[in-house]
Amino acid sequence: MEKQKCPEVRFKGFTDVWKQFKLGELCSEFRSGEFIKAENIASLGKYPVYGGNGLRGYTDTYNHNGEFALIGRQGALCGNMQFSCGKAFFTEHAVAVKANNSNETSFLYYLCGIMNLGQYSGQSAQPGLAVGNLIEIETLVPYKT
Predict the structure, then answer these.
(1) Above 50 in pLDDT, residue 95?
(2) Which residues pair with 82 in a beta bridge?
(3) What is the CA radius of gyration of the chain?
(4) What residue numbers bound the domain in which 51 lies?
(5) What region holds the Type I restriction modification DNA specificity domain (predicted)?
(6) Whose CB has fewer CB within 10 Å in the chain, the N or C terminal residue?
(7) For residue 116, what are the contacts with CB-CB under 8 A and spacing of at least 6?
(8) What is the pLDDT of residue 31?
């Protein structure tokens, strides 16, 4: 069983078996963005605006700066993944995910992408993902020594 958690191909700095963590334990940030009025989103602007289904447009303000994996939180496509680098505005329909020191944000982007997070959506008229549920999902990841 332990052999299944230790792939044959190893990368520098990763020597041990993969370990099980909750998604929230891998992140320094894992939270929904903020509300922005539709009138403040335009087809041109200084900063991209990401919502639950990706790029919505542009605005003149930002609420995040750096590398972030984004999880679509609301709608039929909830669970879809986007990646943002630099200054951007994330709406309340997107979950901003930033890795802590034990991992890489780009790795979390790909990991969440293959986890089919949409399967964890609430069963209501408007499908949606709750941050409180997402951070509790367990997964195996390489452990950096």
Answers:
(1) yes
(2) 70
(3) 16
(4) 2-141
(5) 18-138
(6) N
(7) 79
(8) 95
Secondary structure (DSSP) of 13-54: T--S--EEEEGGGGEEEEEE-B---GGG-BSS-SEEEEETTE
CATH number of the domain within which 71 lies: 3.90.220.20
The beta strands (E) that lie in 1-144 are given as 19-22, 27-32, 47-51, 54-59, 64-72, 81-90, 94-99, 138-141
Please name which of 14, 65, 62 lies closest in space to residue 41, comparing C-alpha atoms.
Answer: 62
Closest CA to 136 of 52, 20, 6: 20
Residue 1 reports pLDDT greater than 50:
no
Residue indicated by tokens 């335009």: 42
The H or E element that residue 132 is part of is helix 131-134
Q: Total domain count for the chain?
A: 1
CA distance readout (Å), 96 to 8, 62, 136 = 32, 13, 16
In this model, does residue 45 exceed pLDDT 70? yes
Amino acid of residue 61: T
* Residue 78 token pair: 């909830």
